[in-house]
Design a protein that fits this description.
heterodimer, A: 113 residues, mainly beta, globular, B: 110 residues, 11 strands
Chain lengths: 113, 110
C-alpha cells in the first residue's frame, strides 16, 4: 500500500464554520506533512509531524490547527478561515527526513465563502 | 532564506528532449528533488540527487552540480502524458523541510 488518502476531496465552508481535513497513510512512514497549494503555484509547507510530534510550524495562523492522533493519521482543523485560505491542501508522508522523497495525497480542495 | 529558479514554461513536440534547469541559493544543502504534477493531481516524486552526477530512471534523468548550485531534469522521448508541471525542491538539511521552486509547465505538442 503506497497511498496517502485524504478526505474530503472537496470542502466548501463559511468563515464561521469549523471543519477538519483528514489524512491517512499505511506505509509505516514516521513523518507527515501539510502543504498548501494555490493555483499555478508550488506547494507551501505548513506543518511537519515526525514521530507524532510537531517538528515544524511555518508560522501558520492559529485558525489552522494540526493534530496527529497516531503515526498513520494526520488532521487539520479549520476554524474562522478567510476567503484567501481557499486552496488545495496536500498531505504527504515520508520515511525519514533529508531524502527529498515525499508521498502526496490527492489533496482536499477547500473553498471558503 | 532560500530561492530556487526554474523556467516558467517549456513547449516541445512528441519524441523531443527537454531539459529543465534549476538553480538554487540556500543557507544549507542536503539534496535536490524533482516532482511532477498533472493538472488537478498530486505531486509525484521523480528523483533525488544528493551527490554530484547524473541519475537515470527510464526516460527521465536528473543531474546535480553542488559546486554550481545547479541541477536539471532531462525528459527524453517526450510523450503527451508528460505534459505537466515540474518542480525542483531543495532539502536544506536532514530534517523534514522541503522547499519547492515555482515550477515549470511542460507542454507536449503532437
Amino acid at each position: 500500500d503506497t497511498e496517502v488518502t485524504q478526505t474530503p476531496k472537496h470542502l466548501v465552508m463559511g468563515m464561521t464554520n469549523k471543519k477538519s481535513l483528514k489524512c491517512e497513510q499505511h506505509m509505516g512512514h514516521r513523518a507527515m506533512y501539510w502543504y498548501k497549494q494555490k493555483a499555478k503555484k508550488p506547494p507551501e509547507l505548513m506543518f511537519v509531524y515526525s514521530y507524532e510530534k510537531l517538528s515544524i510550524n511555518e508560522s501558520v495562523p492559529s485558525r489552522f490547527s494540526p493534530e496527529c492522533p497516531n503515526s498513520s493519521l494526520l488532521n487539520l482543523h479549520l476554524h474562522a478561515l478567510q476567503p484567501e485560505d481557499s486552496a488545495l491542501y496536500l498531505c504527504a508522508s515520508s520515511r525519514q527526513g533529508g531524502t527529498g522523497e515525499l508521498f502526496f495525497g490527492e489533496g482536499s480542495r477547500l473553498t471558503v465563502l | 532564506g532560500q530561492s530556487l529558479e526554474q523556467p516558467s514554461e517549456v513547449t516541445a513536440v512528441e519524441g523531443a528532449i527537454v531539459q529543465i534547469n534549476c538553480t538554487y541559493q540556500t543557507s544549507g544543502f542536503y539534496g535536490l528533488s524533482w516532482y511532477q504534477q498533472h493538472d488537478g493531481g498530486a505531486p509525484t516524486f521523480l528523483s533525488y540527487n544528493a551527490l554530484d552526477g547524473l541519475e537515470e530512471t527510464g526516460r527521465f534523468s536528473s543531474f546535480l552540480s553542488r559546486s554550481d548550485s545547479y541541477g536539471y531534469l532531462l525528459l527524453q522521448e517526450l510523450q503527451m502524458k508528460d505534459s505537466a508541471s515540474y518542480f525542483c525542491a531543495v532539502s536544506e538539511s536532514n530534517d523534514y523541510k522541503l522547499s519547492f521552486g515555482a515550477g515549470t509547465t511542460v507542454t507536449v505538442r503532437a
